[in-house]
Specification:
Radius of gyration: 17 Å
Mean pLDDT: 95
Low-confidence stretches: none
Strand order of the largest sheet: 3-2-1-4-5-6-7
Number of domains: 2
CATH architecture of the largest domain: 3-Layer(aba) Sandwich
Largest sheet: 7 strands, mixed
Order of helices and strands: EHEHEHEHEHEEHEE
Distance between the termini: 23 Å
Number of helices: 6
Structural class: alpha/beta
Number of strands: 9
Shape: globular
CATH superfamily of the largest domain: Formyl transferase, N-terminal domain
Bound molecules: 5-O-phosphono-beta-D-ribofuranosylamine
């Protein structure tokens, strides 16, 4: 069974969606570890309430990125982690971890990348930029994590309408519902071995692993 480590920074609604998908039998995976850079993140309390090991781990606790990376890699290997999921995580994953887990780190972003992505584009900033631009659709993207913010190849994307009287909060809520649908679905595709990655091209194989 696919073993996950979920990285969080906030309330954990995407983590909750993963936990629920597992409970409903829609996701054949187990969450071995939840890690947050914020000790007070609601997502850590949510993990503990679901008997999932929850750790506060931040680069600030280490004297170097190297020490942080090797500690993190040790934990991931100790827990047999096969896929890392960034679910509302606001820090960069160290290059050594990205290298070791090449093509095995997913992130959920609340916009249709490559639009409205990159450094500083998180939370309400994204939805404000979408509304300021006058977009008629927005949505969410699950993508492979590579060395920069939000630049990895998309795995799943799903659109939502932008409504005439939308505020950033109303748009965020609509996009968040879509995040909760596509993140578990993308992780399940990994669990079924149906993701083929060649360069920036991600192919979803039919059930049974054929194209
Ligand atoms: C979500 O909008 C997600 O797209 C972004 O962080 C926000 C909060 O996520 N990456 P969560 O509720 O903590 O899962």
């Amino acid at each position: 069974m696919l073993t996950l480590c979920v990285f969080v920074s906030g309330r954990g609604s995407n983590l909750a969606a993963l936990i629920e998908a597992i409970r409903l039998g829609r996701l054949d995976a187990r969450i071995a570890l939840v890690i947050s850079n914020k000790a007070e993140a609601g997502a850590l309390a949510l993990a503990r309430a679901n008997a999932i090991t929850a750790l506060h781990l931040s680069p600030a606790q280490f004297t170097s990125e190297e020490a942080y990376s090797s500690s993190l890699l040790g934990m991931l290997e100790e827990h047999g982690v096969g896929l890392i999921v960034l679910a509302g995580y606001l820090k960069k994953i160290p290059a050594a971890v990205i290298q070791h887990y090449r093509h095995r780190i997913l992130n959920i972003h609340p916009a249709l990348l490559p639009a409205f992505g990159g450094k500083g584009m998180y939370g309400h900033h994204v939805h404000e930029a979408v509304l300021d631009y006058g977009c008629k659709v927005s949505g969410a993207t699950v993508h492979i994590v590579d060395s920069d913010y939000d630049t990895g190849a998309p795995v799943l994307q799903q659109c939502v309408p932008v409504l005439e009287d939308d505020t950033p909060e109303r748009l965020a809520a609509r996009v968040l519902e879509t995040e909760h649908e596509i993140l578990p679905r993308a992780v399940q595709l990994f669990a079924e071995g149906r993701i083929r990655i060649e360069g920036r091209r991600v192919t979803i194989l039919a059930k049974g692993g054929r194209e």
